[in-house]
Design a protein that fits this description.
The chain is mainly alpha-helical and 117 residues long. It contains four helices and no strands. It has a domain at 32-108. The protein is 77% helix and 0% strand.
Length: 117
């Protein structure tokens, strides 16, 4: 979740610039790649036999796909002439990823004794 908020902050800093700063852009891309790795790992953990809650599995899958989609949209924006559709997709999927990360935290930390099925 912290990385997602950091990603949003760096993205807002980039949006405020007239020409993209190389260090900010590299940081934005690096955070995106780390987020893909972390959400892929969370997805792998959520699908272990110990975790039987489909809500947790579903929200983890949604978060991973949102992060992946936002990263792809970001690359399309960067290398596709700064298309508005790619920008809106990147922002929208980023928002879904933040909501997913919050739900992963909430549903993934419910004590086992309180879980149902």
């Amino acid at each position: 979740m912290i990385l997602l908020f950091g990603q949003v902050y760096v993205g807002m800093e980039l949006a405020g610039e007239s020409s993209y700063s190389t260090p900010l852009l590299v940081t934005h891309i690096a955070i995106a790649l780390v987020l893909i790795g972390l959400t892929a790992h969370a997805l792998r953990v959520a699908w272990r036999p110990l975790h039987r809650r489909w809500s947790t599995r579903g929200v983890t899958l949604l978060t991973f796909l949102s992060v992946l989609g936002a990263t792809i949209a970001g690359f399309l924006f960067l290398f596709g002439g700064q298309n508005n559709a790619a920008l809106v997709s990147m922002e929208g999927l980023g928002f879904v990823a933040i909501i997913g990360a919050i739900l992963m935290f909430v549903w993934g930390t419910i004590p086992i004794g309180l879980r149902k099925g």
